[in-house]
Every structure is written in structure tokens, then in C-alpha cells.
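wait is this the right file?? whatever heres the structure
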């Protein structure tokens, strides 16, 4: 394809898409549509300014390998070691999203993409009981799919977009976890470039869904040892996915284990690592039968 033809295609696309610029009033009006979903912990909600938000605005951008990414970054990524409550947060939000706004919810349905087989209906029932809502109806409002490889994961995200267009009452999309299948499918260093390009395309699609349909997108992520962490008190682990995942995330939260509160409960700590709207800070939570809860 000649350069002249490429330029004509780009010009035609620009005419269809229209101007990327908006007035401050237009941006302000759009921000009024932003939804918030509580984490179940008042301390963490306070850290986030009320909970996880749809259409979180970020000044960052995807790497240039995703040249068509014109939309804002709207993803929330939560990462941490084993047993810090990542999947429990996903379960808690699956219930919270269905509650009315006065209870910290968004009165909508949930799409849950599970890459590790950790979704448990019984946990949803227990969390629903905590908030006094019908467990079976709560499960009915969760659209669940298990992904088996990274290509299948992308197909499910695209299918979710079709559902969002057909049904306007979805308020939350969860991918638990975003990198698990990429680690399996692209294991060698020689495949890193291809992996990152595929990941960037997936993140761009997720960002577009969040922006277009005004939904909260939560991605959980695993961690790996950080051999470069030489400073005192520096984290000894880092999230998988490299810079491309961190740049694609409007909100990033690191989870870690804290001290024992009682014989049965261990305090967990959530640290807000990056946010376009909130300062770096920490919040505490515990894990119990009702999901994420106040310490």
C-alpha cells in the first residue's frame, strides 16, 4: 500500500472520528457521568476518593505500538503477592457493583473473565448475605467466562463489548488476572516483544470499552521478584507486564500483608501507587466471610 493511499485512509478516518479536542465544559459534563464502586473497606475507599471509578482520567499513554489508541486510560490494576486478597476484591466488587449508589454500588451487572479458575459462586453468596441482597439474583447478574489462553482472553473481551452494546446496564468488567495466560503463552525472552504488543492491543480494547460504555474495569495482576530493589524499605516485588501495563493503568494499587489483628484476622494494606486524581497513600482492610471489610 502506497504512502499516498495510507494518508488518504488516515484523512478519511479523521473525518469520521471528528476532532479529538473538547472544551473544558464538555469534559466537565462527561465527568458527571463517572461511576464509583466501593471496595467494601471504608479505609481503602477513602484512599481512592470513594472507590473504583469509571473513566478515570490519566495523562499517560500507551506505547506507540498501539497507534490507534485515541481514548483516555481508564483501567484500574491491583497487584500483590499470594493471599493478599486480589481475587477476594474481585468477588466483593462483583456484589458491590449491583448495589444502589447509596450503598456504594452502581446498580448494574458485572462481567467476570477468569483466567485462573478461581471464581467461586459460594463466595458471591456469602458476600451477598453480608449486604442483605438475594444471593441467587446476585449470581444471575454476573456474566462469567473462563479464558484458557491469551487469544481466547481477547475474544472474550471483544464478546463482552458486544454484550455492553446490547445491554446498557453493565457497570463492571473484571479480568482476574490480566497476565496469567500471557506468562504461559509467551514464556521465552525472544517472545517478549510479541507478548507486549498483544498485551497493548488488549489494554487498548479494555480502555475503549470503559470509555465508551462508562464502566469500571478492574484488572488483577501477579508479581515477581525485583532484583533491582536495592533501596531500604523498597518493595521486593514488582508487577508483571512491564511498563506497558503500568502506562496503560489510570489507577494502580499494590496489596501487601500486614500484622495479625487477632487470632483469626490478619490486616492487609493497600497502597495507592499511581492515580491521576489522588495522592500516594495507604488504606487497610481485612478479609472475612463477607469479602473485603473494615479493619
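ok assuming it is, sequence goes like this
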Amino acid at each position: 500500500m502506497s504512502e499516498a493511499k495510507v494518508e488518504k485512509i488516515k484523512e478519511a478516518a479523521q473525518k469520521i472520528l471528528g476532532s479529538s479536542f473538547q472544551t473544558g465544559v464538555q469534559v466537565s459534563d462527561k465527568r458527571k457521568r463517572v461511576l464509583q464502586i466501593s471496595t467494601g473497606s471504608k479505609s481503602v475507599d477513602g484512599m481512592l476518593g470513594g472507590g473504583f471509578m469509571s473513566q478515570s482520567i490519566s495523562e499517560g499513554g500507551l506505547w506507540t505500538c498501539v497507534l490507534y489508541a485515541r481514548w483516555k486510560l481508564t483501567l484500574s490494576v491491583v497487584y500483590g503477592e499470594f493471599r493478599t486478597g486480589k481475587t477476594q476484591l474481585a468477588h466483593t466488587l462483583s456484589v458491590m457493583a449491583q448495589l444502589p449508589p447509596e450503598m456504594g454500588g452502581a446498580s448494574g451487572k458485572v462481567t467476570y473473565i477468569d483466567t485462573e479458575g478461581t471464581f467461586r459462586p459460594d463466595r458471591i453468596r456469602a458476600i451477598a448475605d453480608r449486604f442483605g441482597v438475594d444471593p441467587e439474583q446476585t449470581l444471575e447478574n454476573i456474566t462469567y467466562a473462563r479464558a484458557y489462553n491469551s487469544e481466547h482472553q481477547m475474544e472474550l473481551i471483544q464478546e463482552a463489548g458486544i454484550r455492553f452494546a446490547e445491554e446498557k446496564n453493565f457497570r463492571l468488567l473484571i479480568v482476574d488476572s490480566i497476565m496469567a495466560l500471557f506468562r504461559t503463552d509467551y514464556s521465552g525472552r525472544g517472545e517478549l516483544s510479541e507478548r507486549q504488543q498483544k498485551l497493548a492491543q488488549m489494554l487498548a480494547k479494555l480502555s475503549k470499552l470503559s470509555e465508551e460504555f462508562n464502566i469500571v474495569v478492574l484488572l488483577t495482576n501477579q508479581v515477581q521478584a525485583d532484583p533491582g530493589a536495592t533501596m531500604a524499605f523498597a518493595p521486593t516485588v514488582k508487577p508483571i507486564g512491564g511498563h506497558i501495563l503500568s502506562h496503560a493503568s489510570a489507577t494502580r494499587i499494590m496489596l501487601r500483608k500486614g500484622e495479625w489483628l487477632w487470632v483469626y484476622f490478619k490486616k492487609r494494606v493497600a497502597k495507592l501507587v499511581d492515580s491521576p486524581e489522588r495522592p500516594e497513600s495507604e488504606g487497610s482492610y481485612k478479609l472475612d466471610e463477607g469479602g473485603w471489610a473494615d479493619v
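The chain has ten helices and 13 strands. so i think its the right one actually
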